[in-house]
Amino acid sequence: MATAQTRTLSRIMMAPAVIVLLIWMIVPLVMTLWFSFQNYSLINPMMTGFAGWANYIYVIGDPSFTQSLVNTLILVGGVLLITVIGGILLALLLDQPIWGQGILRILVISPFFVMPPVAALIWKNGFMHPGYGMLGHLWKAFGLQPVDWFNQYPLFSVIVIVAWQWLPFATLILLTALQSLSEEQREAAEMDGANALNRFYYIILPHMARAITIVILIQTIFLLGIFAEIRVTTGGGPGYASTNIAFLVFRTGILSNDIGAGSAGGVVAVIIANIVAFFLMRAVGKNLDA
Amino acid sequence: MKLTPLFVSALTLALATSASAQTLTIATVNNGDMVRMQGLSSAFTADTGIELNWVVLEENTLRQNVTTDIATNGGQYDVMTIGTYEAPIWAKQGWLVPLDGLSADAAYDVDDLLPPIRDGLSYEGKLYAAPFYGESSMVMYRKDLMEKAGLTMPDAPTWEFIGQAARAMTDRANDINGICLRGKAGWGENMAFLTAMSNSFGARWFDESWKPQFDQPEWKSTLDTYLGLMADAGPAGASSNGFNENLTLFQQGKCGMWIDATVAASFVINPNDSTVADQVGFALAPDNGLGKRGNWLWAWSLAIPKSSQNAEAAEKFIDWATNKAYLDTVAAQDGWANVPPGTRTSLYENAEYQAAAPFAKMTLDSINSANPSEPTVKPVPYTGVQFVAIPEFAGIATNVGQLFSAALAGQMSADDALAQAQDATTRDMTRAGYIK
Which of A41, A43, A60 to substitute to test the interface with B, most B CBs within 10 Å? Predict the structure, then answer.
């Protein structure tokens, strides 16, 4: 048992690490908050001084703000839908004793090791480009006009790319959950005459509920800030069709060099992420209590 | 202490090394001419002992990188590759070192620089950046397709003729598009082309009191003409096409005409890269009889940021890369057609260059016909042909470029794009304090 002395000692020894970590988190946040109330443009040294709420009013009043908010939610929702449903199906498939199972598992997981900008580049030029992408050639082979994915279906295209990257993560988590299901339970259900669909609905799905919750929660946190895929493929366009909040912040802060408004956008993005996380925890997080 | 001598000798060695080998960090763009310069630069190091550390970036990334560095006084670079947009703005803000040494050097011959380019890189009469290559824009067209269509390209075509020719040359079944134009969003991509085009339609970005003009009929007819032309005779997926994409299309024989940078001329007549090398003709950018043609003016140039600790060595490097002898070096290695064009009068008087570069005269005429001080038919409070030389322009035009790109992609109507461009630009100009 720790004595008062050892406890004090451990606190003193841990303090530097804790302080460094705190500074690491707090300094950028405080600086973002500070800049969001300042007139600060990188390219216009005349813009200085306290801005009040002007930066926030400017960002929220941006003609593309509402659309980027909706786009953010569609992106998160779309990717979640594909990865959760696809992940369940793939997990069920990979759980089967099939030939070449090891190689198949590695293949399914491999997209997760590809960095987002690289993945986006491969999809953009290798697959979806109407001129020299694989899909374009496929369309032509059937005598059809190639689809210009990033201009005709920009948001959908981004969703496909991001979903491709996150599907392995969902599959892995769900497969692990599936493998922890006891064989006896399945056999018992089978003996009681439950068909495959019933077994899936009443046994497998409830068993995976917790894992699904984890997948949704973790992915949502990352998906709210999708950036590289948009930057590489559509540049937020055409128009604002694929601009999400993260890209809007980038456009304001970096492309327009408006650090004040960009910081305000960053703070707004943090607030939105917290609101989404709050509702998400209430909606699906209850699964974690069980 | 036994360690002291060791420490002292190590310190001496370190100091000696840093004193003997001066290193310049140079940020540049990944265009062919710059990559060639990088390859030739070992001669500079051999002559001067100055080592070079290259940071070669794609155009948009370079712009962001150097802008952030210079605005925050980061001091990461000794030499920056910038354009005619940045040079006067940054010089005004005191961010650049004036190139007084070069201007005073008779051997460098600053008066040999083409006047529109030199003016574009000067502020209050002082040169702040030295042009590496300069360009305007012009029409590049396929002589064979033009003949097949039963037309003859005049040296100075009108937009009406371009429209007629583009539609006549289009042969979708054989994958031939009458015209390829920039559609990719960006202030240096579709907006460079559209702004230059709008000048010939009598449009302007702002009136004398900085009020945006997208609600005026001149912009409407510019955008309608552009969209109509691209719908009838442009390639599929045009809203993703920038300079490089169109260059590839033209080289593959998929464009009847292409209106873009004069610097592309040497690429489209190079038989190693271009399948249509022997069929390319050149003409001035089109006009509408209003006194302005739709051609721009640009120069990729080298400048020294105030934050550089090696300004003297940096100026030596800029001298090496932009003087007359450099052109001779490239000509000796790769032939006269491949020297960086558009910067020096003497190059255009050189008989060898004229013989090797059939586009030389058209390039020079295009550059000389662009006037950054009076870019538009109606008066404007700004300078710049295909841009507005104010710090906020890059952000504003990127935004407008997105809207026009969306109109080209069919995601919104021309009227909507213009209305939104008007609103967004008014908002940004008000925020920046131009509109009270």
Answer: A43
**Closest to B244 measured CA to CA, from B267, B277, B272:** B267
Q: Assess A131–B contact: CB distance below 8 Å, yes or no.
A: yes
Residues A148, B240: C-beta atoms closer than 8 Å:
yes
- Return the structure tokens found at A247: 């890209």
Q: What is the pTM of this model?
A: 0.86
3-class secondary structure, B14: helix
In Å, the largest CA–CA distance within chain B is 93
**B93: nearest CB among A45, A236, A256:** A45
pLDDT of residue B1: 42
Query: Coil, strand or helix: which one is B160?
Result: helix
ipTM of the complex: 0.81
- Give tens-digit pLDDT for B239-296: 888 898 899 999 999 999 999 999 999 899 989 999 999 999 999 999 999 999 999 9
Does A236 contact B420 at a Cβ distance shorter than 8 Å? Answer: no
User: Does B65 contact chain A (CB < 8 Å)?
Assistant: no
Which chain B residues contact residue A144 at CB under 8 A? none
Distance CA A272, CA A59 (A): 14
Partners of B258 in the β-ladder: B140, B180
B54 — pLDDT class (breaks 50, 70, 90): very high
Nearest CA in chain A to B416: A239
